Amino acid sequence: MNSELTSLILDFMKRDHIEDSKRLNQKLSSSNDAGLVHKMPPIPFTGNIESMEKGNCVCLLGINPLWPAPGKPAHEIELKPAIDLIRKLHLGDKQSFDDYLSTRLSYFYSGIANWGHFDKVGIGYSEHFFDGVDKRSVWNKNAFAMDVIPYFSRDATSLDRKRIVEQVSEDESLIQHQRILSSIISETEPSFLHLNGSHAIQVIEKLYCEKPLTRQGTFGSQFGLRFGEAVINETKVKVFAHNQFGYGRYNPTKKHWPEFARLWQNWINKYDA
Question: Is there a contact between 193 and 59 (Cβ–Cβ < 8 Å)?
Fold first, then answer.
């Protein structure tokens, strides 16, 4: 990780996340309560961005991290330690920042990964995009994750898409986070950006796409499947996007990966021709 990116993350994590989340709670929801969890620091990235195969990896971009239900193991193995490390950082303990970065870099092989979430995309990456890996080992060198809103919430239903699109380029905390995203994209040069959900799609289209992403046939109509190109910090990156994975009528599931991948390859062939 280069010094510029490290400094960006340090400055971001030194912010008063409680005040930031309280302010964003009002700005990101028409009800003045977006459901963001005040006590939890934001997540700048997830995965070993230092070990990514430059030009042969994917950045998964979702809406925001989900706050686990009471009693879930994540509270003890990931969230409470993160809260403690960032508290120490704010008290002047520089080592705590290095320790915190290590937890984010080692997320997928330190026993804290939420595989119930990441297996849904990992299986698609391993079976259709990257050779010689499985749905979990793909996160070692070929995949990492970020979110449009890096603050936790109990669910995303109160997050207003229009307000998010406005605030990512107006609110200083979200502007800082976009700088981190841009720097990570420049450093890893992913072969594609995977947008999981309409919130991420609208943000990336507004900030980084010269023209809207192109919907892909019937899957484009039902699941919002669309492809295109973004330019992030002078780095061109292909974009693979769809509605958030789920179980509703308009939400894709892992069974749709083969057809998604086939359509993507057809689009890539035309793109590179």
Answer: yes
What is the per-residue pLDDT across 149-188, written as a single tens digit (0 to 9) for each?
Answer: 999 998 888 899 999 999 999 999 999 999 999 999 999 9
pTM over 0.90: yes
Alpha helices by DSSP H, listed for 129-215, are 138-141, 161-167, 172-188, 198-208
Contact 242, 224 (CB under 8 A): yes
How many structural domains compose the chain? 1
Summarize pLDDT for 109-126 with one digit per residue, the tens. Answer: 999 999 999 999 999 999
The C-alpha atoms of residue 120 and residue 140 are separated, in whole angstroms, by 16
What do you get for the CA distance between the two ends of the chain, in Å?
A: 34
Q: What domain range is 194 assigned to?
A: 3-272
The CATH number given to whatever domain includes residue 170 is 3.40.470.10
Question: Which is nearest to 24 in space by CA: 140, 126, 170?
Answer: 170
Q: Helix, strand, or coil here: 236? A: strand
Sheet order of strands, 214-215 included: 143-147, 58-62, 192-196, 235-242, 226-232, 214-215
**Separation of alpha carbons 55 and 167, rounded Å:** 30
